[in-house]
Design a protein that fits this description.
The protein is of the alpha+beta class. Helices cover 35% and strands 19% of the residues. It contains 4 helices and 6 strands; from the N terminus they run H-E-E-H-E-H-E-H-E-E.
């Protein structure tokens, strides 16, 4: 079964200007070839059970942002409550932040990074 982010990140995008597909993998490889290292990364993950949490928090402790898809456990209120309680405690300990984004996504940030709760809206 293909995960939510696999569906999004695995597809090629169509350029409105040319009508051709843009292969984002090629862009990623070009960015890596420049040799510039990012100071912070955004890690994308899915969680399937409470025991997965320790592996998923390591990037946040290392100063990265975690975008966590909890769709696989969205129907398990007990497990979801345990995970969010643990993540809230971790972010409080490291002076990070946690916020829900959409229906089944959480963003977890490291020390010094806060999530603005007010959405930036585009114009129609």
């Amino acid at each position: 079964m293909m995960g939510f982010f696999d569906k999004i990140l695995g597809q090629k995008k169509v350029s409105e200007e040319t009508g051709k597909f843009i292969d984002l993998t090629e862009w990623e490889q070009e960015a890596e070839e420049t040799g510039e290292k990012a100071k912070m990364n955004v890690k994308v993950a899915e969680i399937y059970r409470y025991e997965d949490l320790s592996n998923l928090t390591t990037p946040v402790y290392n100063g990265n942002i975690l975008l966590l898809d909890f769709s696989p456990i969205a129907g398990d209120d007990f497990t979801l409550r345990r995970i969010t309680t643990e993540l809230k405690q971790m972010t409080a300990d490291i002076n990070g932040d946690i916020a829900g984004i959409g229906k089944n996504l959480l963003v977890v940030t490291p020390n010094g990074v806060k999530v603005e709760r007010e959405k930036v809206r585009g114009t129609y």
